[in-house]
Protein 1
Amino acid sequence: MLIAAAILTVLVGFAHSILGERRLIAPLIADPALPVPVGHRTTRLILRAAWHATTLSWWALAALLVWSAATPGTRAVPIAVAALFAILGPFSLIASRGRHPGWVFFLPAAVLCTLSALG
């Protein structure tokens, strides 16, 4: 179950980086009408780096899930990841009125982590 949750987490990371870069970050950074602080080169770099740091964080969580799957008796990681994804899933679903696909990954991963921690 944790390996499946890790795979979902890696997939959401790829989707976040690739789609987010194409549909949000690149157009945002390229927009000359943005306020000066956002248009500044350093700010543009920070926006892009922060966006992709989220993906790297999810991949680190996926690695921890794989480690936890290989280390019997470690429940802290799946419990923490389940809690995070149980918050992110509904938030993504409700805030975007279902238009943001993140919840499709977060909610199943939360369930898988919860079941693994309980089992």
Protein 2
Amino acid sequence: GMVKRLDEALGRMHDAIKSLGLSDDTIVLYTTDHGNHFKTRNSEYKRSCHEASIRLPTAIQGPGFDGGGRLNQLVSLVDLPPTLLDAAGLPIPDSMEGRSILPLAQREDVADWPEEVFVQISEAQVGRAVRTKRWKYCVDAPDKHGSRDPGANVYVEQYLYDLESDPYELQNLVGIDAFRAVADDLRDRLIARMVAAGETAPEIVPAEPRAGGQRATSIDAVRTRYLAWVKNRHASA
């Protein structure tokens, strides 16, 4: 199968590097551009804020990364370029986003490592998300097209998940009053990350309030709520 072929290909590359005497001067990085739902969310495209899309298989081997193990911190694809520069002894430009994970790989104490990762979703939708170790918060721009519009000025809350109690993201908590404070905190974090990435601070429309036992609104309902919000805003202007 695919995993077996991948394992064999990496093994051949590793053997070639070793036979050429390049092991001390070569870093091997394996990763992907997105995850895989593995038929768990058949209605979704590969680009979404759900874990099956944004969690990527990633492994690094070579000088500076020979201690083995697994990182517990949240890291992102934008952290990989500065990581490779750092491992090669090259300066990391101030303009580059992300941080080197080399200190984490070497088990150094990095007290100020970010507590969340930022996700930009395109093509399937114009969406943004922020994920902490426990929470996932995602917003959508209902009037924008993912393959045409890079961003938006207005988003609507779409998902809120408690990943500790709901790792498979089956219970959408968005709009439930008991989690309003959590959503507000994550909204502020998301806006801060968007601004840091060069985007304009957007307006995020809260999800429609609902009782804890009610099913979360569908994306069509989110769009309907957004259009009603736009209409009311224009009427009061």
Protein 3
Amino acid sequence: MKRLLSLLTLLLLTALAYFGWPVYQFYAFNLEKVPVLASAAPLPQGPLPHQSHHGPALGAFNTRAADILKTTRATSNAPGISAAIAHRGELVWQGTLGYADIKTKTALTPKHQFRIGSTSKAVTATLMAKLMQEQNFNLDTPLQDSLTPLPNPAWRDITPRQLASHSAGLPHYKGNQDRIGLYRSLSLNTQFDRVQDAVAQFDEGPLRAKPGDAFYYSSYGTVLLSAVLAQHAQRPYLDLLKQHVLTPLGMRHSGTESQGNKLATFYFSRRGQDARYIPWRPVNLSHRLAGGGLISTPSDLVRLGSGYLDPHYLHPAVRKQIWTPQRLNHGEVNPQNYALGWRRHEYQHNGQPAFTYYHHGGVSRGSQSMLIVVPHHQLSVAVNINSKTKPFWIFGEAALKLAHAYVQLTEQAQREPLDTKVSAASSTASLLAK
């Protein structure tokens, strides 16, 4: 009997360790409620490695951009920062500062890939826009008519518009009432090969509100939207993404983490401010691909933004639908000015309106992302870091600072003599053609 009790105790302790360790890591890395049981390392001594790629005409801008990266990396306390700018559909500037990997002293380059978190929602919204344009996808068809079998009868009146604008009433991760699904969203060690299987992790329980009544940010809503898109087109979500978004826009370094061939190492630091770093625990984000699980580079992200400014890729009427902030049932625009997979805001410099921009940030495990598009100036800017910082805007504002600096440069160039501008434009075109 004693041997049996000992064996049962051992099995129980083993099970607790197996299932409890991922939860412990969640509380350590994400909530910082318990210690991270790993040793931390500082950045290598000496100047941080840096790179920049630009045309001769952007020499003055590059100096300003380098200062922005330096300040943002320091205030964000990130091992590395990477950024890119596209203007009028052309990649005109790339810059990096710091490390992709501290242990190996690998310098960050423009080709290093990052987890982009909720910036994935803008990528999924782009797929939705293309299906609206090419396959008559309807934003207002209720799920009872567009998703069969319907996983939850409470979802019958939800529309794709509400899923894309966070007004469907679905919960976010911690509000999940499916206990197994909630555990898997904490442990992050389960592979989901199909979107439908990911949806099954949160298809229980009531809605937080009647569809359209309130704004509740929900990555699960975007995951459910990806299932609706896949059923409409009768193809897997990732296949559709590659066909309609990644390939036509030249986003060769974007996709799932399992496809990444030049991933940066993602880091944890205590409260985002400790100057010592621990590699983030291994995670599997396949349950949230469409809403927060994709990888990309700043250069690829600005290609996505540029696609919205290209009428040959996306019709202006479709772009207008995607970028229009959505109204709730009471008639008022939602509190985040959220459109369909994008937010719309005004940038002010020194208290004066500077430009309207559309954007989506992202926070993932050991990584942050920011993408903005400034239509009036035909500009797209993206910034990524391989750690997390609080508040997000310490990092996110870098994209706006880069955009404003670039706008100032172009406005100054417009006032220069014509022969000077022609010479600078020729030099830039020659460099980017290489």
